[in-house]
Amino acid sequence: MADRLDRLDQPRQPRFTVRPYDPERFGKLAERIARFIGTARFLVYMTVFIAVWVLWNAFAPAAWRFDPYPFIFLTLVLSLQASYAAPLILLAQNRQDDRDRVQYEQDRLIAERNQAETEYLTREIAGLRIALGEVATRDYLRGELQRLLEELDERGRTGSPPS
Predict the structure, then answer these.
(1) Do residues 110 and 160 both lie within one domain?
(2) pTM of the model
(3) Range of the domain at 151
(4) Which regions span the lipid bilayer (predicted)?
(5) Is there a domain that residue 139 lies in?
(6) What would you report as the CA-atom Rg of the chain, rounded to the nearest whole angstrom?
(7) Is residue 96 part of a domain?
(8) How many domains does the chain have?
(9) Percentage of residues in the chain with pLDDT exceeding 70?
């Protein structure tokens, strides 16, 4: 056992394991944060937070103040918040773009299928119209029978034999 631990050509076993990075879970978290950052509630919370910070550090007893007038620490906190918010918002936008791309592709496929079905039905209707043009209609048959009756009546009156 000690022999195995001292070998330099073998990798060491990790002392602890880190949970694997799940980009889907992180992406969902980023979207939730970005969605919250884009709300009026967040703006109200940030406004109240900054107002309390400034009022505390301007009017609290000197011993209780932790960020005197130019409020350098507040600037640092807001910069840190912005430096994390921007990439989270971009990540959420990229994920939304990916979802939109998939949706557009599905919509395109559905539109192509609908177009093909419409063209098929148009060809079928055209074929039926052509076929109906070759079928004797009721009015056509009535007209032919009427013409034959008139021809028979005329032959009967004239006494000529049918040809």
Answers:
(1) yes
(2) 0.57
(3) 105-163
(4) 42-59, 71-91
(5) yes
(6) 43
(7) no
(8) 2
(9) 93
